[in-house]
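Bumping with the actual sequence this time:
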Amino acid sequence: MTRHFGRINLGTAVLLVGLACVSQPSEEPAGDSSPAPPLPPTAPALAPAPWSASHLPRDSIPAVYLTQWRKAENRATCVVLAPASLGDGAGATPRAATFSGGWAVAYDRPGTRSAFGIAGTGSSATDDAYDAWPHTIRWADSSSAGYGPEGGSGPNQLAYLRVTGQECLYNVWSRLGVPHLEHLLSQLRFVK
């Protein structure tokens, strides 16, 4: 018994064979079927540096800052930073302090000489310096501060501050405790 399927020309036959080949599933080499590892958590964005805020007008800071800075050997590479707010140190009296090669302003309180202050030291920000601080702050502009008890035991608190674009190592200190030192660091501004 012969079955008749009708006339199929050669072109149609080739097309059908080609479709049959294409419709066959291809075999992929067996690979690792485990899910991709999770991406590491994204580091939180660093806060803007306090000095990236508006500059303080010269007439808004104690005159001793500019007087000391103008005398400093490093004035071309170590601009004035001053706190916009003194926090718990409000009412203290600013005065000139001595930092060889640099400039400094200390604040005195009744019964406490040099209760806190800031210095643009004669040391370079790139010099090897003590760096085993218990606390560190890093800002978005790549500036950083390492701080903790002065001399490793306190009670005074000291920060070594490196400000991007400035060549000096700044010192910020407070005898009023860590929260006050952190406040001073958060309030530092360039002076215009």
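The tokens above came from a reply further down the thread. Confidence is low (pLDDT under 50) at residues 1-26.
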